[in-house]
Amino acid sequence: MQDKLNAIEKAALESLESVKDQAALDAWRVAHVGRSSPLMQVFAELGKLSKEERPVVGQAANKVKVALEAALAERTEAVKAAALAKALEEEQLDVTLPGRTVNVGHLHPSTQQLRRVLAILADMGFQVYTSREVETDEMNFQMLNFPPHHPAREMQDSFYVEAGERGDNPILMRTHTSPGQIRAMREYAATNPSDPPAIRIALPGMCFRYEQVTTRSEMQFNQVEGLVVGKGITFADLKGTIADFAQRMFGQGARTRFRASYFPFTEPSAEVDAECFVCGGKGCQVCKNSGWLEILGCGMVHPVVLQNGGYDPTIYSGFAWGMGPERQLMLRYKINDIRYFWGNDVRFLSQF
Amino acid sequence: MKLPISWLKDFIDVSDLSVEDIARKLTLAGMEVDEIHYVGLAMPDYSKGEKHEFKTTGISWQKDKLVVAEIREVMPHPNADRLTLCDLYDGSEQHTVLTGAPNIFHLKGMGKLDKPLKVAWAKEGSTLYDGHAEGLVLTTLKRTKIRGVESYSMVCSEKELGISEEHDGIILLADDAPAGMSLVDYMGDAVLDISILPNMARNANVIGLARELSAMTGRPLKKPTIQYATSGESIEGKVSIEITNPELNPRFVLGLIRNVTIQPSPYQVQRRLRLAGVRPINNIVDATNYAMLELGEPLHAFDYDVLVERVAQIDNLRHDIKIITRNAADGEKLTTLDGNTRTLTASNVLVCDEKGSLSLAGVMGGAESEVYDASKEVLDATGVEAKAGEVTTGKASTRSVNTTNILLEGAAWNFINIRRTAKQHNLPSEASFRFSRGVHPALAEMGVRRGLQLMAEWSGGAIAPGLVDNYPLPPKEAVVDITPKEVKRLLGIELSAQKIAELLGHLEFECSIYGEIVTVKTPPHRLDIGEGVIGVADVLEEVARSYGYDRIPETRISDPLPPQVGNPIHEWEERARDILVSLGIQEVVTYRMTSPEREGRLVSFDDYTRIANPITPERTTLRRSLVASVLEIVEKNARAESLSLFEVGPIFEPRKNDVPNEPRKLAIVMTGRRLASAWDVKDSPAMDFFDLKGRIELLLAGLRYIDVSYVPTDSVSYLHPGKAAEVKVNGQVIGVFGELHPLVKEKYEVGDKPVLVADFDLDALRAASPAYGIVPVAEFPPVFEDIAVIVDESVPAARVEALIKQTGGKGVSAVSLFDVYRDEKIGTGKKSLAYNLTYQAADKTLTDAEAAAIRNKIVKRLEQELGAKLRG
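Predict the joint structure of the above. Result:
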């Protein structure tokens, strides 16, 4: 009997050597360890053996079974590994083919820049305040301390709107977001005229100047202003706030300098330069070799403007500053043609 | 304003400061230096990594190579008629220098000169501009032979030294120029190009800038002393002045100088004028310009004898001149010295004599009278810059032979009026630049005296004693009280009353201190200080500038944070933008200005908000249709294979005699292929109505609108009547969308694919209440089933779906149309709609029998209400 079992084991193991794939493995299993395999026949016929022989043959047959199953498992692993190796070798992609894309929308770069600015200001406690784009001369100029025919108006040539005879108060496209200062102050002051609340707002929006459209000048552009009004607001606070803002906007360590300047609606007024973030002050095309980039105009809110907004300038003080998102983008991305912004060529827009 | 550093040094000692130091101090104090133009002085060496601070141009003169020298004799060149050889002495050695300069040619062969000519001499190896090249080309002087004579050095023209474009002759320096002295030490210069702010008109002159620098550095200002000898008869009684409108002409001053000899000004004067951007003409015109640049008061010189003659023409017994200033008559004509005849209006002011008008006050001289000959072409100072191109020195000198007696005008004018006049007649000039920004009347007298002094110095004339001065309206003297408390409150710095007074004193404010109050009197050269709270702000700015903006600390706001109110409208729009972008739609931002013709391709309106002064006929009105604007962008990008664009912004609805309404709109335009072509994507189908609708559904879902319905419409003129829908949210129409009408599409160059457009009223949409609840995620397994029903073509899919949902109630959690099918078997005029139904209960697992019961109910309902048949 033992000879028979040895023969069964030998034949099975020999046959297993030629097994190369899953199908052959399955067939082998049926033939050698399946129900009607010679080995199983031995088990089936155990009952016919004597009481003494039965455990001996049973044990011997079991040993063969364990050996065959182990060999099968080993062979199965080998076949799998070979199949995988073959598959991996055959499934080679040209990884340099372009990837499959989806249609992607982008925010207009001006919107993106406005968001950057407003997000920083929001962190600093500035609420967004928006107001109309077509304004009266009174709101755009007179309330902001630009009397009619004042030379400072030359800095802001305007588009006027036909609106019948309105004397010294024609209607125009706002030249800056500053009329919103008056509107906001009046709105806030109306909530408690005898003791108006403090203000900390950001005023974004489209502005218009009477300028030919060229690579460097546009007839419409965005502006963002910051306005702070309160009972203890100082020029030193203005400097600190601008420095904080510049650190966030242009990077930690961004150096700024304050230059005295003139705006009718602020006094003292200043323009702020940041050290050129392209060349770090060494001199380049972007800063025209000056090492500095003009980034914003600012100042203490003029007493006349506070008064016009319903805030007593002997009690309240404030500061305001204004900047241009498109200019910031032009500097940051070395855009040398401002017409790209409203040209809306998707080949430009999709780069942001 | 162009400021030569050498001129600045007449009034303040800045010898220990570099040009950059000076430029920096001025810039930080509000006199922004746009450019430093070097004309000899050493430029900073950027090659060593030094940081740039200013835009820099020009040339530095090598100290050892360029020196003052003297020509002792001009000799003929042996082989060239047009060249000369100069015997030159450089302070230690003799040299022979070859030149072709025409301005010493006449001295050729005259032997040893009585008075040597002082010149700028460049040695071998000097780097200079090439005088013969177009533009500015640097070249290095090399030893060479010209027509057989060895040459290794040269006498220089202004062009070669970078002083001006002048290359007609060599520079002839003043007789006292020391031979052997390095040229850079003798006259090396740099010019600061400074932007003058509207409130700093007082600094559009050398003294103004020196005064500022004195305040910023604490150095004394060397104020000019204007003293001169007078002789002959006094001016008094010879000239009178009548001012008819003191508001417009607060002061008018005249001085007289006799027996001037008109000739070129001394070289250094000419050089300074050139560097300051003013063309030298002759000693008289130059004196008016020089005094203006130095003090800020524009002057006007008349030929006195011509004016006397004009009086004699009226009454030959008279020779007293009467100058009258008056408003022009409406329609009055004046030929200005640029040769243009101008029609004046009543707001223009004229300077006249009894015979007629002489000049447009403060703006430009006139050509009507004979003074035109003498004072316009030769002697007018106010228009020098405007006419510089026309006046030749030769012409000037022939005429000037006759001019011996000069009447010199210095006046004050209302700056707003001058500004309007200069703008009205488009006459910018050095004079109108200053007068239109405000020149203090106190300067009129100082200007005339300085002008007379310079004329006497440069022309040998004799100044008549006295001035005629009519000063009917001195400006109100602004006095402001300021306290350390105010300084602390507004600037955030602690300054004592004494310190405040000291800082303001540097700018020539007169301060007196009473306890804690500093009473500040405005100096008589500035008009920019107001009264009351305005005056306080004006003076505080001067305190801050004098103290130095850079010294004021940076602090954080100590005021408590105000109420945080947010901006729901802005935030909501930003959310909508984010969703649109996430749906693959690109944002655009277009011009607010368009024209009825441009928008008319899409839609026309009865009325528009019109621009009164359009800059181009293309943009004359404010947009009324956002879709029209976005369509134009689609046209511009027509080459793109696929476009999905949106814009959020206002349109403008006109209101009579008032600002327009500015409702907020959203426009979406889509056209082109659904998928971009790629190596594995070929001929993707064109986007249609449902591509746009799907995005609208997702947008509205993203904004959390649940109750949304779509109603067919054929009433939007620019949409295809069968492919257009109104969108209702909570029963309210908030927008329309659909395919562009074929006839409208023809008007746009947008390719052959359908163009899909949407126009939403954001104000209405925002007003609709969103639903913030969620549908809980089901816990029990669903049962899925497909059913197909055959209905008449006229039955909208939305109706079938609504009935299924309504009948299924809570037992049906989802209904989704997956097929629309038509064929003969179904029958003509019929369609089959196939749905995936999801049966689900919130509280248990549905059995097949329960699901079937719901299904049967639904089918029955559809049969009853729509005559639908279940498809087998």
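Chain A touches chain B through 102 residues (CB under 8 Å).
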